[in-house]
Input
Amino acid sequence: MGNKVITKISKLFPRFVWEKLANIDWVLFLSAVLIAFGGLVTMNSFVGEQNYFFEKQVIWISVSIVLFLVVSFFDFRFLRRTGVVVLIFVVSCAVLSSLFVVGHISKGAQSWFSLGSFSIQPSDLAKLVLILVLAKYFTRRHVEIAHIRHIVVSGIYAFILFFLILLQPDFGGAIIIFILWFGMVMVSGISKKHFTSVVLIGAITFCTLWFFVFQDYQKQRIITFVDPLSDVRGAGYNAYQSMIAVGSGQFLGKGVGYGTQSKLKFLPEYQTDFIFAAFAEEWGFVGVLTLFALFGVVIWRILRNALWGATNFEMLFGMGVAILFMIHFVINIGMNIGLLPVTGITLPFMSYGGSHLIAEFLALGILVGMKKYNRSSYKESISLQ
Output
């Protein structure tokens, strides 16, 4: 009976569809979906009868999942072409520039395109674009990567996006761009001598930003992370409330819907920046360990797919995606427990918002699409002949 049902279902779709579905890394996909579901449940639990964030997030997660499945069917070898990557980079820069003309201002930043009841933040997709550009650039120069000019040229690509995002101003997004570039330079095979040069460039850049770019409130955020309790009614308020929420979860948590910090709205930006604190309060240490394990699985599967990449381009792209997720994860968790400044950086798959979800599932979709022609697939096809 069971075999007949399976046979009937299999006839509903062409064979190539089943082959492509079989190619999907379901462990990676399901881990990411479970993390998104964790954020969704936490979001719904503390808004009571007003399910504004929950309902919109359901839509964004659904769109992102469909996008992932569709994109995973594509053959992404066309991204190896220099002209294609350059075009994507130019379009991305044009979109970021257009924000200053038609962008929507929210909380002092002109970072969104308003689409009625929804908004799109292009900087999230710009991070993915930078990964593509750097993967392509370092692939072409892999043999001579030790030459410092390639670090400088790749830095120029990153700086263009960094500058356009910083002008919005989106300090958190700009920092992600810089660290992403730095991380990809490290995995590209840079020499130790040039590693020191990169560190010095980073230090000089930070000093320049501190004295000539950062606003007073941004400096205060950085200073306050050293001792959030020194200004709990001002710049340290968010971090202080977040630390209380995380600590109050204890071992098993207070239970879904019983987080007092989030339920009574002492915890600010509970659906975005501090979704982890709200989750930790309700799910406790056990829930946090489970969440960390799921993130660990996501990073492991990304790196596994990257290491089996058909060429250096696929490998570097996968490495870049892993670095991007790790940056977001470390910084968001760090600011939730008072170890890093509050910079408005989302937690991958979990924080409210459609732009970052689309970018994240798009990145995974591209990675899975590349999996069809990676080295492991090639070996398997040879063994079957």
Remarks:
- DSSP finds 16 helices and three strands in the chain.
- Residues 310 and 374 are 4 Å apart (CA to CA).
- The chain has two domains: 81-214, 217-385.
- The longest strand covers residues 109-115.
